[in-house]
Amino acid sequence: MLINRRQALQLGLAAFTGITATSLTKTIHSNDNPKRNFRVVGQSPLRKRAVARGFLSGAAGNYPTLSTDAALRNLFAQECSILVPENELKWDTLRPAIDKFDFSKGDWLAKFASTHRMYFRGHTLVWDQALPGWFKEKVNHQNAENILVEHITTTVKHYAGKVHSWDVVNEAIAIPYSNRPDGLHPGAWLELLGDGYIDLAFRTAAAADPKAMLVYNDRWLDYDTPRDNAQRAAVLKLLERFKSMGTPVQALGIQAHLDGSETRFNPRKLRTFLRDVASLGYKILITELDVVDKKLPVDIARRDRLVARAYEDYLSVVLDEKAVIAVLTWGLSDRATWHSNYNPRPDRAPVRPLPFDSNLKRKLGWNAMARAFDKAPKR
User: Angle of helix 364-375 relative to helix 300-318, nearest 10 degrees?
Assistant: First the structure.
């Protein structure tokens, strides 16, 4: 049975590796350093700290919360230099019928970004998930290419000149769920169009808006685990294939949904991967950063400290690579995070995966990000 990204995150890395609850508790305890210093200099928001080092900092937001929550809107305006819609440009929201597009919510977010001098990202043009209900009934081998080309062309032209970058294809590789040598995900687009759908999508997007940065976005690229090691190798091969085919891809997006309980973080391997990507001429964006706290202690001080450790350790490595041009968290405040629904804690305590708490106050995770930003080499 295939499982999707959210289900995989719910299962957690322990399900793939056989880590026991007892051993996990021991590793978390050994990884927690109460004396670790997360002190920051000054009160500048993240967007200013990032811009000072030559990259963008932002977050994902959604229409339901930002259109109704003035305090959260103000926080986004203060902290973010780039905004990406969580759901508003996915197929199931954007295309309610095969012959109808609804850009209203995406347009609201684009205007909000412009008003507050933020760049605007597009997410996502091609993905095997978040497809509308009509898709399975109405899309087949005969019309799939026309429908895909129409969707990309219409959407990208609608936002031409307003979008910094597009996640053109999202999660095309699915280690360990693929039985193909290239690791491609056995989803709808591969089944309908074969592996050429990826090249087709990028060429179509490039034709619709030659100025937007076109990004291949994927997950499971962060840790020294069998799954992540294989995923990195497969993604690198796909990027090499893009180069050989002349596919118009300018950047790799790394989702970075981190696990606060995961201790198999190998800075050397991650740096090597980033360097290999950059050596091919690609820019890199961290597109969906957050830290799952599902398995961390309930004590808020300990939990926030472990989440902050994950943020700082990861970003300190990633930002050493000058090809990294943007860091976006998937949400900004614990008040509005997808993990509340998809990665709830077994003890039912509120999750705390983001740099601001539910009262919009800075947490140690914010400090950790600020520290990593301040220490990053200038681009």
Answer: 20
Residues 6 or more apart from 94 whose CB is under 8 A from it?
88, 101, 102, 103, 106, 155
The answer to whether 80 touches 348, Cβ cutoff 8 Å, is: no
d(CA 101, CA 158): 11
Residues facing 121 on adjacent strands = 165
Instruction: Tell me if 71 is assigned to some domain.
Output: yes
Give the C-alpha distances (Å, rounded to integers) separating 22 from 25, 27, 60, 260, 289.
5, 9, 35, 16, 28
Residue 12 placed within a domain: no
In single-letter form, the type of residue at position 211 comes to: K
C-beta separation of 212 from 126 below 8 A: no
Q: Does residue 21 fall inside a structural domain?
A: no
Instruction: Say if CB 2 and CB 177 are below 8 A apart.
Output: yes
Structural domain contains residue 40: yes
How many whole angstroms separate alpha carbon 157 and alpha carbon 151?
Answer: 10
Measured CA to CA in angstroms, residue 214 lies from 217, 236, 255 at distances of 10, 17, 15
Which residues lie across from 84 on neighbouring strands?
60
Q: Rounded to two decimals, what is the model's pTM?
A: 0.92
CATH of residue 235? 3.20.20.80
d(CA 137, CA 146): 16
What average pLDDT is seen over the chain? 93
The string of pLDDT tens digits covering residues 237-295 is 999 999 999 999 999 999 999 999 999 999 999 999 999 999 999 999 999 999 999 99
Helices (H) and strands (E) in the chain, counts: 17, 9
**The total number of structural domains that make up the chain:** 1
CB 257, CB 330: distance < 8 Å: yes
d(CA 268, CA 272): 6
157: number of Cβ within 10 Å: 13
Domain that holds residue 275: 26-375
Q: Whole-angstrom Cα distance, residue 124 to residue 87?
A: 9
Angular region, 166: left φ>0, alpha ψ -120 to 50, beta rest:
beta
